[in-house]
# Entry
Amino acid sequence: MDTQWEFIPPSGSQDREESGADIFEKFLKMTSVLGQFMEFHPVHGTNVQLDLSRTRATRVESFANGICFSKHPLNPGEIFLVEIEDKEPGWCGHLRIGLTARDPQTYETVPEYSLPDLVDQGESWVFAITRNHNKVIEDETHEDAEQAADGRNDESNRHKSFFTDTHLYIENVCIPKDKLVGRSRPGRFSHILDDLYKTNALPPTARRSRIGVVYVPKRQGFADMHIIINGEDMGASAKGIPTNQPLYGVIDVFAATKCVRIVQVEYGWEFSACRCRSCFAH
# Structure
């Protein structure tokens, strides 16, 4: 006999505009989409070789033609996260990461470089990771100054601090930190190296470093792109990105970066709780 499941809303609920089943269905859709298995797109640069799982990308020769894309478009707040697995000394430059609104399937030939080639074609936003100076310094907006003056940010700041230890919180998006920080290989000094990754004391281009890209909705129809390095938000590296078309993750396995591996992030209930208000409002 088939088991029948029924979602029963809280007995004290005052909102009858949407049934409990409708809300539960929205929740399931959101968590299932955000839990999708991340892979690289089969379309990629000519020097890229993917493993059978399509989660590891290796540049097999030269220093260019290493562009890879996410297999599926990203959702708001969903991070495309990779770990640097191997380096190739002797080249100048490192990993590049970003977003594109162009469907990878439309490329007959993937551009040789993400910067400037891919970006110059339009509808792509790419950030070059360096050994230093990846943090974006933002000027305080007039709106931010007004909110700070009258204390309207107090509630938001309290909310953010609640998730500080376990989650990275950017605007209305929160991401579990457990997978965001690089980890050393098990060994005698691994505990020391792990602490260096957690504090971002090691160069972001080092082996085992984890780098991701995520877009955060702002005003309706637009978003900001944020780069995450070992669990730390580098700030909005691109602003005003239109969200009226799908956005794919871009990884350029460039120069001294030889091989990267996708890190799967499990969002769970906490992520949904962070976003449930905005989800149920639409």
